């Protein structure tokens, strides 16, 4: 009699610390294709994020980080001009500078703590790779803000309410940042951390730093007598003041 052999189960891919199966970076041929310029980088981060994550680990990682940061600055400046059309005047140049500067400062301020949490969690990611993931987070968020820009412009021409426009821009920023953080979390998972507790703590801290920038660099929406505020305020206090005022001028 012929022996009946049981079917061989499919091979399970390697898993990371979280228990989720992750195909190691570099296993797909398209991930090895170079990213020579900004347009290719934008296409990669939207369609092939693994390609970007893999190349951040290579010899050209430093150049790629520069491309990502340049893309972030360019996209955030463009979105800032749209924000400035609400009040016009000096806000056409002040809002872009504040938005681009605020995003860059948020990433720079939180980068050291990300490196510390990565080391504590047992991650194999080096400082350059973490810089690349933060740069990718910022650029992806900025690219998504460009997608929201036409909607933001429409409402900026339809209302004089600082509170409404501020809430709308915060909503767009929150959605864009969530997608950016998803890119960073996926990239961090490939560095084989033992725990994600540190990364979760860092995400909360990054969000708090970013929203505090809305108060530290105010006004971003509306006008004021000076480029930067002369009074210290927590972001919750600043938002409350915006809700309580009916004037198109933000103090």
Detailed description of the structure:
- The chain has one domain (37-244).
- It is 63% helix and 0% strand.
- The protein has helices at residues 38-47, 49-55, 61-84, 91-120, 127-156, 162-189, 197-216, 235-244.
- The termini are far apart.
- The longest helix is centred in the middle third of the chain and has 30 residues, at 91-120.
- It is mostly helical.
- α3 runs parallel beside α5 (127-156), α4 packs antiparallel against α7 (197-216) and α5 (127-156) runs antiparallel to α6 (162-189).
- It is built from 8 helices and no strands.
- The protein is globular, with a radius of gyration of 21 Å.
SSE topology sketch:
Layout: H1 38-47, H2 49-55, H3 61-84, H4 91-120, H5 127-156, H6 162-189, H7 197-216, H8 235-244
Helix pairs in contact: 1-2, 3-4, 3-5, 4-5, 4-7, 5-6
């Amino acid at each position: 009699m012929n022996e009946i052999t049981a079917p061989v189960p499919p091979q399970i891919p390697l898993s990371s610390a979280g228990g989720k199966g992750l195909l190691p970076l570099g296993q797909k041929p398209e991930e090895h294709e170079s990213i020579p310029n900004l347009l290719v980088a934008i296409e990669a981060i939207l369609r092939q994020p693994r390609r970007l994550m893999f190349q951040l680990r290579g010899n050209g990682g430093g150049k790629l980080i520069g491309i990502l940061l340049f893309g972030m600055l360019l996209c955030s400046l463009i979105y800032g001009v749209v924000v400035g059309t609400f009040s016009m005047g000096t806000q056409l140049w002040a809002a872009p500078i504040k938005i681009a500067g605020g995003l860059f400062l948020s990433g720079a301020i939180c980068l050291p703590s990300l490196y510390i949490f990565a080391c504590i969690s047992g991650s194999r990611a080096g400082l350059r790779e973490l810089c690349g993931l933060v740069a990718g987070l910022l650029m992806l968020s900025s690219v998504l803000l460009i997608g929201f820009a036409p909607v933001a412009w429409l409402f900026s021409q339809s209302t004089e309410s600082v509170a409404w426009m501020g809430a709308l821009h915060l909503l767009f920023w929150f959605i864009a940042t969530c997608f950016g953080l998803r890119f960073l979390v996926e990239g961090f998972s490939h560095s084989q951390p033992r725990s994600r507790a540190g990364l979760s703590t860092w995400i909360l801290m990054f969000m708090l730093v970013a929203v505090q920038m809305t108060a530290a660099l105010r006004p971003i929406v509306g006008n004021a007598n000076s480029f930067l505020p002369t009074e210290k305020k927590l972001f919750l206090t600043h938002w409350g003041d915006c809700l309580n005022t009916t004037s198109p001028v933000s103090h």
